[in-house]
Amino acid sequence: MPLTDVDKNHVKSIWSKASGKAEELGAQALARMLEAFPNTKTYFSHYSDLSVKSAQVHVHGKKIFDALTDAVSHIDDITGAMSALSTKHANTLKVDPANFKILSHTILVVLALYFPADFTPEVHLACDKFLAAVSYALAEKYR
């Protein structure tokens, strides 16, 4: 389902708040995924600590949120913005693309927890559509 102009505005609005907390939110989302979906830990077996307190989780969580910030800034060409990451995840890291949807879910949870007043049903829907578009773009090189 394509993002409408209203959806794009909702995503940009909440992301203007989220991007300033990229490391914290990213670590929360990543740690939640690793805890709630243990099968995702296989991609992080080289990490010594998979908790939200882990420096490695913080670094990677920030990378995730920085990439999403880039996708927001290229919201009209998410596939193009995510092309290099798609190639890396498909060819080098060999991440199961189903994990992109799992991480999207934990990102939504974290946004709702950190910004409850802003995370209206309309914003939730817009963010869900945006993250689905990002997941689809990241899976592009698998096709």
UniProtKB/TrEMBL annotation:
Keywords, comma-separated and alphabetical: Heme, Iron, Metal-binding, Oxygen transport, Transport
A Pfam family assignment: Globin
Gene Ontology BP annotations: hydrogen peroxide catabolic process
SUPFAM superfamilies according to UniProt: Globin-like
One annotated Gene Ontology cellular component of this protein: blood microparticle
Any GO molecular function: organic acid binding
Gene: hbaa1
Domain of life: Eukaryota
InterPro entries, per database record: Globin (IPR000971), Globin-like_sf (IPR009050), Globin/Proto (IPR012292), Hemoglobin_a-typ (IPR002338), Hemoglobin_oxygen_transport (IPR050056), Hemoglobin_pi (IPR002339)
Ranges of residues in domain Globin: 2-143
Similarity remark: Belongs to the globin family.
Protein name, UniProt field: Hemoglobin subunit alpha-like
